[in-house]
Specification:
The chain is mostly helical and 279 residues long. It has 12 helices and no strands. The radius of gyration is 23 Å and the shape is globular.
Length: 279
Amino acid sequence: MRMPSLRSLKSALMTFFMAAATVAVLLPLVIIFAHIVKMGFSSLSPDFFIHIPKPTGESGGGMANGMAGSCILIVLASGLGIPVGVFGAMYLVEYGGSRISNVIRFAADVLSGVPSIITGMVAYTLMVVPMKSFSALAGAVALALIMIPIVLRTTEEQLKMVPDTLREASLALGVPLWRTSLRVTLRSATKGVMTGILLAIARISGETAPLLFTALGNQFWSKKLTEPIAAMPLQIFNFAISPYEDWHRLAWAGALVLVTLMFALSLTARYLGRNKYQS
């Protein structure tokens, strides 16, 4: 009987190690998601989506104000962070050789690695202290600071993948550089840019620490952007550390909804990215 060669043994060993590494990565995710589904699914009901939390001691209630507040914060943060990130990436691609471009890249890399609680403290100093109040605007600024480096760096990489021949053809026809960047370069990388934007939204959807310093939270409906506002991550945090069993159930249900949202956004981003590269 012929013995397997050393090369075959090395190949089989490396295949085993790669499979073990894959399992090691996926197993904690599966365990966490399964536990959240187990604990949260039984607490989901129509009341959860249409009612605000009940007062202490009363059963029932939901997180309608938290879901609405999270949507408002994400929209405001996207309105601040996406334009800055996209236009900043366009500047880096078109004027990438300048010294200021290197400074912007370095600042974006540093900002993306800053803990979110530090970002919340900065937003607290910039917004809450001058306004003398926690507010949705302050929370949106904190989340936008987290979004900007993610959108900027992903958009820059996508714009770099656009063939130079498209830019050159547009410029040869007499189209100004700014219009070429908007109408040709950016449009050609739309799917990739959307992928980065969705990943940034998924990232800020679950942020809690920055909102503790800025949005604070609210047990009721918020009527103004200059007032404290509820958000699902804040409500999950507050309910999870409370001594009440009903609030614990709401926290698990909220965690399930939030994780499902983030999972859907990540899958959508992967789908857009896959279609882009396949095309």
